[in-house]
Design brief:
The complex is a heterodimer of chains A (about 900) and B (about 110). Chain A is an alpha+beta fold. Chain A is about 50% helix and about 15% strand. In chain A, helix 5 (about 95-120) runs antiparallel to helix 11 (about 380-410), helix 5 runs antiparallel to helix 24 (about 760-795) and helix 26 packs antiparallel against helix 27 (about 855-880). Chain B is about 55% helix and about 15% strand. Chain B has about 110 residues and is α+β, with helices and mostly antiparallel strands. In chain B, about 25% of the residues are buried. The termini of chain B are far apart. A two-stranded antiparallel sheet of chain B has the order 1-2. The interface of A and B includes residues 7, 32, 53 and 60 of A.
Chain lengths: ~900, ~110
Amino acid sequence: MKNRRITPPKLSGQILKWFVKEDLRDEILGDLYEYYMEIGHKSKWKRTILYWFHLLNFLRPFAIKKLEGTQKLNTYGMFKNYFKVGIRNILKYKTFSFINIFGLAVAMAVSLLIILMLVDQHQYDQFHTKKDRIYRVHTKIEGSGIANASSPFPLATTLKEGYSMVENATNLVPGIGGDAVFTVDKYAEVRGFFADAAFFDVFDFALKEGEPNTALSLPNSMIITSDVAYKLFNTQPAVGKTVNFQDRSLGLMKIDIGTGKEEIAEDWGEFVITGVVDLEKYKSHIDFDMLVSAATLPRLYREERMTDKSDSWENYSLGYTYLLLEEGSSQEQLQGSLNELSDAKYSAFPQLEGMQLLSRNLNDITPGQFVGNPITLRLPIEAYYVLIGLALVVMFSACLNYTNLSIARVLTRAKEIGVRKVNGARRGSLIFQFLTESVLTSFFSLIMANLILLLLRPALRSLWISDILNFDLTANLTVFASFFGLAMVIGLVAGLYPSLVLSGFAPLKALKNLNAEKPGKIGLRKVLNVTQFTFSLFFIITSLLIAKQFSHIIDFEYGFETENVVNIPIQGNDYQILQNEFASVPGVVGTSMCEFIPALLHTNGASISNEVTEENLFNAEYISVDHNFTENMGLEIIAGENLPQNQTNGNFILINEMTVERLGFETPHNAIGKNVYLGGQRPMTVKGVIRDIKFQNPVMGEGDLPLILRNKPELFSFINVRFDSQNQQVMKALEDKWEVLDQTHPFKSYIYDEQLSRSTKWFGDLVAIIAFIASLAVIISCLGLLGMAIYTTERRAKEVGIRKVLGASGSQLTLALGKSFLLVLFIAIVIGGPLSYLANNLWLESFPNRVDFGFGTVIIGSLSLFLIGLLTISSQIISVSRRNPVESLKDE
Amino acid sequence: MSKEHLGEFEELVLLMIVLLKDDAYGLAIRNALKEHANRTVTIGGVHGTVNRLQGKGFIESNLGGASELRGGRHKRLFTITSSGKSMLEKSQEMKISLWSKIPDFALQNTKG
């Protein structure tokens, strides 16, 4: 017979003892015991679970031991004391605390912003379940520093078929973008890729509608995003519907500054919608409005809408290859195979020798190292290193303030430290106490930093670049954890040095020499101050320089008339009709046609020579314009005559002075009527020579380029309308005219000057960011200086009083007090000035179209720093030196 | 007006203590709640509530006998105090007077 006694787990008693109040323990244990007996009929594991459930349910305020007062928890009491003393100290020295907290908060806000950005970027592509096995193949040509994100077309198939370690591979081919038209008024602008059926095997995009296995297998099928589906079909099911696709060769990136070339829409035929993906749900570096089945490509090759490059290994910018590695295979093994493959394939192409195929894991794409030809524009990891570097400098400066002010207050705290030591405090506890204080300060800063962040975030969003970079700066758990960690680390870093110094005082000395003037650390404090100001000066000079460069770009003289010109894409309409109609609009001064808009981001090169040759060629900008262009845009013809009105008999061109020189003609007049050869083959007759203009965007280069103008009406895609700026109605009238002539395409127009300024806008953003960080650095250094000024002048109040009584004048006193601060500023300028000159010259060298960076900028920067510093300390010093000596001397 | 308020669950526990007379302790109250009021709570929940009731002065307690069934530990036996009793009565009176003020038809037309 078995009568095993059942007893509750022994551990329970121990645990209850640990957390429950002593006087309640007995009854609680009793009740639990009885309960355990009561449920004795249940199975053992059920009993155990129920028992523990009830036990842990006693973790309630009424039952838990109060921590206070029990002897075992003495450290808790000490900690509470440190906390209290810390708070009191912060409240007692309000000015210093404010300087510390504000400085740290400002620096922290910048760091927090960068954390937000990084956390956002790290969330990219995390939804793919096989993400650790997905790799993108990059190509890198010999001698190039940067790899390309794109790779040859046949790579995916070759890898999939020839290498067992590659489980699957998919190819994304860009080059399709235009309008998907459902009905006349239901259409959407879509950009995207050709993708094969392996796409949904490699990636984990789920289809909201449609079947992923078959959606991309048939020709002329298309997957669209929910947004597009809503635009086309509203809430009706999209799968099975047919749309007509008009290709306009739109690029992948949605940057519309109205530049480049307007392509004529081509009808690519009917496409069946086979799937809808809700792309909003996914954070991926692959961004698209539609995916067209790769099976459609052969038809497009046949119709000569695209060139068949599916077997071309030498063209490495046509597509993106993503592969899924077998489980258990490593990136090294993959790299080995890729090396083998590139050696085998590229030995046949002498010009591509040394071409490398590289692999990059999906996790390292966003954020990742800079690559050429990216799918979506993102800040490369290098940019974050720079930002982190800047934030660290600002942070460091703020920490220096803390260190500096804490050490300066040594004398005030010496008494307290002495008493604590005499009463038996160990050094460790004192260090802990000071660290508590600094961490507390840091957490106050964190609160303030969050408030600053609320202001910073919209400011960042309003920058032009954020539209493209598409940051999602919302906080989540990781963000909060990193904020907390950051505050902790900053508190410890800022407090480390002061705590070591302060806790190291010998107690007797600290109590005895209460009025020792020099704590012996003045040298170090000065060094810290100098460091701060050197950084500040560097930032000031850098931002001055960038601002100067920016204004140089803004005020760039193009050499032709860009004001009061509006550029209108003709969108495939007959240019002559448009020109005639627009010319009749009241307020229009002149019209001209061109292939693309000069000095924006689009360029078109042609090689040219003065003989039939294959070698002596040089590159010139080549643009088609009509004969009105020179007059309308204010180009000056210095020799010969304008382009003929129509180009029926002969190939005539206009060239500029630079081309004349490069072609080897003595004077512009010598060039007139001569033949030059496009591509070294096609003869062209020089009709006239125009004065040099800046044909290039100032961000891209100096602007001076050899130039060829030719009248080739079939290439015209923009009409430049010069208007009378007094006439307010012109725009409206032009639009009305357009609507009569073209009912299908909406009217588009771009003011030329606005286009030009927008093309350089990102540079303005850069100026704003650097100037912002520079001002932060200056503010923080000045706060530090102010703190020091307040402290030293207060300590020297008696000295000042005595000097005054003995007959010193106000100005003498000001000088005496300010001398040491001026010295700090002076040393900072002596070190920082040349340093920033050298450092800034480094990056400026590589910048096209640069301003002269003379010592002028350094001097202006140094002077402004000096003045700001002077202003900061002067109020304090002057008020002390003006004070009535009786006030400072009466109480002793 | 009494300054202490009696919550709904507190009132139930108080009633159970009265009901159980001389054997009102934590686990017994829990079982009574389950049996008479169809309320399942944890033992800790009951302990918490009686602790609060004692704090409000509605019940008092003394340590009771230990038995082998409880692993040789005491139980805390609760009895209602006079203020607890008057609180219960007041609560009942209030509800009755409220009910008497509600006209019959007011409940007839409610949905469900």
